[in-house]
Structures are given as C-alpha cells and as structure tokens.
C-alpha cells in the first residue's frame, strides 16, 4: 500500500470518497458542518450508501463527529497524552485543556491473586479501588480504575478528594516518589457498562492502558487500568537506543 492505494491500483469507491472528504475536512476546519449527504454524493460521483461508508470510517477515526439533531461536523484535533510517568491532569493541562473526573467508585476491596502479586500483597489483601470517568473540558473521554495497597495508603479514603489528581496527592501530601512503571497498550471495544459511563458508541474503538508503577526502591505503588476513546486520543513517547 502506498498512500492508501494498493499495488494493483484498484481503489474502492468508498476510499476515493474518503480521500476527497479528508481534503474537504482540512479546508473546512474544526467545528464546520459537512455539506448535505446528497450534495457530497453527487460531487464525488458515488452512491449515498458508499458516501455513508466513507463518513462512517472518518467518524470512527475521530475526524468527524455526528451530532444529534444536526449535521456531521469536523472534529477537533485529538488529545495527546504522553506515555510517561505523568498524571492525566498534567497531560491535559500541558495542552491547555481543563481536566476533570467524575467519581464512580472509591472503596476498599480484596485483591485477587494477580492484583495481589502486582502490588506485593498476600491474596485477599485489601486495596483501595478508585474508578473515575475522565473529563476534558467537561467532555467524557475515558474511564480509569486505580488500585493501591490500603495498608500503605490508609489516608486515601479519608483525605483524598477522588475528583482531583491522585498523583499530585501522593507526591505532595504523602511524599511518594515514582521511580518507574511498566505499561501495556492494546485496542479494545468498551463493554456496555463502560460505553454508558463514557457516553460513547459501543462500536467506537478504545485504547486500553495497563500500568504498574513502583518507587525508586522497587516498592509497588499502584496498578491502573485506563480506557480512552480512540476517536479522541493519541499517545506519544520518545525512544532512545540502549547504551
């Protein structure tokens, strides 16, 4: 494939229309409505069914947004979250975006075998579970579940405002120093519950991050599962050669 064109040179009609739409999106700019479906189908010489397929892909990719009761509009640029030991709050504020969280769960729970192993606990040891919907300028964009050893962080349930930054509380109030983390990334579809909490279509691709972090001395701090809308987020990191 070169620029989307297969080696045999035959381009699906929906893809040709999608390429035309991408050029139109760049011309229109963020928030602008697309012309009517009939007009676009005639302009690009395709059926309305073919045009809908092209538009549907661009919606899934986060280039267009379908709004209830109005036309499809050009989406804003994707939010960029660094793959680094920084909090969601820091990542959003670096882009001029106001972060927020809606608390779903803040409670103790027993750790299963895998969670206990990740956090250096005996199976059944208590952890604090924080489940929060992530907001960006008031828009729901993700769902985060954090698990921390309760015995090491007894202040969490009594003193921590779960609508705020967990990393800021750990650093500033408890003196926790993050040393390193291991992160795994995959693409998934949201469960019906997750889609409802985030307010997204269950067919929208999601980006799932699993992270375990430790102090510089190797003591586990947290395990976190972060689910982000694939149509609203991209991730970046800087790589260096070993040695």
From TrEMBL:
SMART domains reported for this sequence: HTH_GNTR, UTRA
Protein's UniProt keywords contain DNA-binding: yes
Keywords tagged on the record: DNA-binding, Transcription, Transcription regulation
Domain HTH gntR-type as annotated: residue spans: 9-77
Gene3D superfamilies, per the entry: Chorismate lyase-like (3.40.1410.10), Winged helix-like DNA-binding domain superfamily/Winged helix DNA-binding domain (1.10.10.10)
Protein name: GntR family transcriptional regulator
């Amino acid at each position: 494939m070169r620029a989307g064109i297969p080696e045999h040179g035959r381009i699906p009609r929906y893809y040709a229309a999608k390429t035309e739409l991408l050029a139109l999106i760049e011309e229109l700019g963020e928030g602008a409505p697309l012309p009517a479906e009939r007009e676009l189908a005639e302009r690009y010489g395709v059926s309305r069914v073919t045009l809908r397929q092209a538009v549907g892909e661009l919606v899934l990719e986060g280039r267009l947004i379908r709004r209830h009761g109005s036309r499809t509009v050009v989406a804003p640029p994707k939010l960029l979250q660094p793959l680094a030991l920084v909090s969601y709050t820091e990542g959003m504020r670096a882009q001029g975006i106001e972060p927020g969280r809606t608390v779903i769960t803040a409670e103790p729970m027993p750790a299963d075998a895998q969670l206990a192993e990740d956090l250096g606990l005996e199976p059944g040891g208590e952890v604090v579970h924080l489940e929060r919907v992530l907001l960006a300028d008031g828009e729901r964009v993700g769902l985060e579940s954090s698990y921390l050893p309760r015995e090491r962080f007894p202040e969490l349930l009594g003193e921590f405002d779960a609508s705020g930054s967990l990393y800021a509380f750990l650093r500033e109030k408890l003196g926790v120093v993050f040393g390193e983390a291991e992160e795994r990334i995959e693409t998934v579809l949201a469960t019906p519950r997750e889609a409802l909490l985030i307010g997204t279509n269950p067919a929208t691709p999601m980006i799932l991050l699993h992270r375990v972090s430790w102090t510089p001395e190797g003591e586990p701090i947290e395990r976190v599962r972060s689910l982000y809308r694939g149509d609203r987020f991209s991730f970046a990191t800087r790589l260096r050669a070993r040695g």
